[in-house]
Amino acid sequence: MARATRRDDWGFPRWRAYGESSREAAKVRLCDRHGCTEPGNCPAPKSPNSPERWYFCQEHAGEYNRGWNYFEGLSAEEAAEREAAETRTADGYTTSRHQQWAGSGDGSRSRDELRALEVLDLEVDADFDAVRLAWRRLAKQNHPDVRPGDTDAAARFQAIQAAYDVLRVAEEQRQWKPAQ
After folding, report:
1. pTM attached to this predicted model
2. How many whole angstroms separate alpha carbon 143 and alpha carbon 160?
């Protein structure tokens, strides 16, 4: 039986994990950024849809991700199709819908609602009465009966209608939501 030495002790406090030998050198992968001596423990793809990876330290991984274009090489239609396909399959995240980003700050508005408020030229904290007044005012200004033959006004009218529908549905969902 081997005699226990100070390097192989099992006493406390423990400085090594179970099964780890003190005699082996620890394998550390260095950052792939030229000249960096930090451990590279953040994998990043070398190109879209490629299994090959760079391994960066946290600082260089952040720098790499800031310049990453997920839709590089795709046309606008292909990028929109890919985004729609990925959001269609994100059903597992609907339980955390209340934690959506880009809300009004208190999480009460979704990203779509904020876009709709921009179309209606309203502030983020506008109530539904202000939404209704802005919708009526803008709809009267851009209605196709008021401006016949103006295609820009017709497009603005459709955008105003869509924005109002988004905000109306969201308001109805808030009204019917049970108190917790």
Report:
1. 0.42
2. 10
